[in-house]
Amino acid sequence: MARSALLNVMVNAAHKAGRRLARDFGEVQNLQVSIKGPGDFVSAADLMSEKIIFEELSKARPDTGFLMEERGEVKGKDPQNRWIVDPLDGTTNFLHGIPVFGISIALEREGEIVAGVVYNPAMDELFTAEKGRGAFLNDRRIRVAARKEMTDCVFCTGIPHLGRPAHDTFLEQQRRVMRNSSGVRRYGAVAIDLCWVAAGRFDGFWEEALGAWDLAAGIIMVREAGGFVSDMDDGQAMLEKGSIVAGNEIIRRKLLETVHGE
Q1: 29 pLDDT exceeds 60?
Q2: Tens of pLDDT along 144-157?
């Protein structure tokens, strides 16, 4: 697959940071870890990955600003474009030696996500998508699953960490989905979860209380794989509201109704 110049910039940054993460993952027992909050860890590897991505993208597109999990908002001279970056999605998995984590990079142009890259160096899986050009896994075109009945589907979600609000609400949502599906999984890396929806591994995904960096690349991945996404209010304010429901057209709607008990 011939990639655009934009995707090449993003892939190169993800691969460079991924090589460092893969090395650190091999020595996960030796990482220095500080606690940022209950169940929300930040590691030396996370910060180094962000530094590499920031430097690589800044070198390639010096005027483009950033929204990054650790650094926050970094204004650029170009008001139309912004990188949205999670340098290590699935930090807790990473620190526990679970090979489900990734680097997530998206480009937002005039408020719309137009390109996304998610790379899991432990599995060497590279997901890429660009508006109007489809979604790919290691250069192979991917599509969302075509199932139409909830009872045939396997869904993925995220469980609120200890101390976070709405835990009881989530448990009610999970019970409703479990009663109406073939199963619910929890892998702990939102960007990877959404890519797996795009690849048809999961039929759908829902979660709330997320950051824009968790969602941005996964949103375009699902859309370019033929899927549909919305916030929990059935709108398109996913980044602003921090919630998402994803799947094919029929399953996304049924999953949203089930989560709300309709």
Answers
A1: no
A2: 999 999 999 999 99
How far from 87 is each of 64, 98, 143, CA to CA, in Å? 17, 17, 25
What are the two backbone dihedrals, phi and then psi, of residue 202, each rounded to the nearest 5 degrees?
Answer: -110, 150
Instruction: Mention every residue, 6+ apart, whose C-beta is less than 8 A from residue 96.
Output: 28
Q: Where in the chain is the domain with CATH 3.40.190.80?
A: 150-259
Neighbouring residues of 11: CB distance < 8 A, sequence distance ≥ 6: 3, 117, 119, 126, 128
Its CATH class, for the domain covering 150-259, is: alpha beta
First to last CA, the chain: 43
To the nearest 10°, report the CA torsion of 123, 247, 112, 186: -50
Overall residue count recorded for the chain in this entry: 262
Return the DSSP state at 191.
H
**C-beta of residue 63 within 8 angstroms of C-beta of residue 77:** yes
Angle, CA of 175, 219 and 154, to the nearest 5°: 30
The domain defined by 5-141 folds into Fructose-1,6-Bisphosphatase; Chain A, domain 1 (3.30.540)
> What is the DSSP-derived secondary structure letter of residue 145?
-
3-state secondary structure 46-107: HHHHHHHHHHHHHHHCCCEEEEECCCEEECCCEEEEEEEEEEEECHHHHHCCCCCCEEEEEE
Contact between 102 and 89 under an 8 Å Cβ cutoff? The reply is yes
Could you tell me the pTM of the whole model?
A: 0.94
